[in-house]
Specification:
Structural class: alpha/beta
Strand content: 25-35%
CATH class: Alpha Beta
CATH architecture: 3-Layer(aba) Sandwich
Distance between the termini: 24 Å
Helix content: 25-40%
Largest sheet: 7 strands, mixed
CATH superfamily: Vaccinia Virus protein VP39
Oligomer: single chain
Number of domains: 1
Number of strands: 9
Order of helices and strands: EHEHEEHEHEEEE
């Protein structure tokens, strides 16, 4: 039996965010959000990850993510052409540029039982994800609040950041 392959869609340009959110540190030790996905995937037995990125971002991804992770698991890159990918078992959508419906259709055409996890930080994406994930098996939605501190004299103020929504679900397979 083939080993599962993790596919991380990370080609979004972060136009609403103001930069490449995939590469910005979020954790206490400078971890980026993808580090957490890779950690969980590795613990679940995944030995290979394919990052879907824009060709023009390849050097940044290799430097910040790929080179660092290559000793933990096999790392490959694909460039925003989803049609040539193998059928994924698990997919993380970290930015869909308004194409979530088409992307999910492509994923489930390749593997009708694939599991998909998606993050959303805008009302528009939350609405789209809620609508699309409602049709999936074991659909779930979680909202996380993030607070960042900033100095104000001798005090530290808590500044609320955008909430992050995480959607997950599985395709219904061939028999549905």
């Amino acid at each position: 039996m083939d080993k599962p392959v993790l596919v991380v869609l990370a080609a979004g340009m972060g136009s609403r965010y103001g930069g490449m959110k995939q590469l910005d540190p979020v954790g206490p030790g400078g971890q980026i959000i993808i580090d957490y996905s890779i950690y969980d995937a590795r613990r679940a037995g995944f030995e290979k990850v394919i990052f879907i990125i824009r060709k023009e971002n390849e050097a940044d991804f290799r430097q910040v993510i790929g080179d660092r992770l290559s000793h933990l698991m096999e790392v490959e890159y694909a460039f925003q052409s989803l049609e040539d990918l193998p059928a994924p078992d698990r997919v993380f959508l970290g930015g869909t540029s308004g194409n979530m419906d088409d992307i999910l259709m492509m994923i489930f055409d390749k593997n009708p039982a694939a599991r998909v996890v998606c993050t959303a930080v805008t009302l528009e994406t939350v609405g789209e994800a809620a609508r699309l994930f409602a049709h999936l098996t074991e659909a779930d939605m979680v909202q996380l609040s993030v607070t960042r501190t900033r100095k104000a004299g001798r005090y530290h103020l808590m500044d609320a950041q955008n909430p992050v929504w995480i959607f997950s679900g599985e395709g219904k397979g061939h028999d549905a």
